[in-house]
Amino acid sequence: MPELPEVEVTRRSFASHIAGAGIVQVRMGKLLRWPLGIDPRQLVGQTVVGVRRRGKYLLLDLSQGLLLLHLGMSGSLAFGRLMAAPGVHDHFDLQTTQGTLRLNDPRRFGAVVFALSEQDPVAQKLLGKLGMEPLEDGFLLQEFVTRLKQRKAPIKQVLLAGDVVVGVGNIYASEALFLAEIRPTARACRLSRVRLVRLQAAIREVLVRAVEKGGSTLRDFSNAQGESGHFQLEANVYGRAGEPCRVCATPIKAIRQGQRSTFFCPICQKS
DNA sequence: AAAAGCCCCTGGATGC
DNA sequence: TGCATCCAGGGGCTTT
Known about the structure:
Strand content: 15-25%
Number of strands: 10
Shape: globular
CATH class of the largest domain: Alpha Beta
Strand order of the largest sheet: 5-7-6-1-2-3-4-8
């Protein structure tokens, strides 16, 4: 479900509410992707200092250590003072003095992991190979070009890998490549500098726009206040197989790349 | 080092 | 109505 825009929208929807809160109780449901890595009782009494994002991870800074949260494919967070009894897919509750943060994740590809610091090997295993943040000043054109020049794989799959630039998932990879007029199957190293300049701008553009629209709600995404996103309504290619391209009216094509679907316009994205 | 496949898991849509 | 099949927003791990 959640790519960078959904994770960022989620972060903004509860960060200010939870900042400064004391942890009162922690409830674990079914096992997520990994174990928490600490006895939940050791979190009680700690303070949630703030919430940051790195790629698709949310980092809850605690007075001692941090929690790394990942929403996987089907995860979403809810934050509120009044929480219903946990449902079958509510696998983590962080009850604080300012409200409860709850992770709902039917497929359980998500995770909540404790680490003592970002340098902790536990954290580094997850964060260590992440690429540049696309919405920050550190999204450097020269590094973007240099890194892509050494990759022979299709550009779509290099974007998804997240080791050059983070946060671009299956929806926004297709959307960014459409804006940049680049065919998803093109080998990264074969793209000219001019086209990579366009791609970098397109990635920024589509992610910024998606955050503004509250993310994409395909099936069930909502932010921590329960609000849906609306970016899916202005997708140019994702999920639009057979429908007319908004630019040239040619039917949008769907293909498979690395067991994920990819959408593109065969005319606007010639190569 | 990079690329390609395999999984983890549940639920909804589709087809017979 | 029942059952099989396919597909889904991610990404770590293993094998080439």
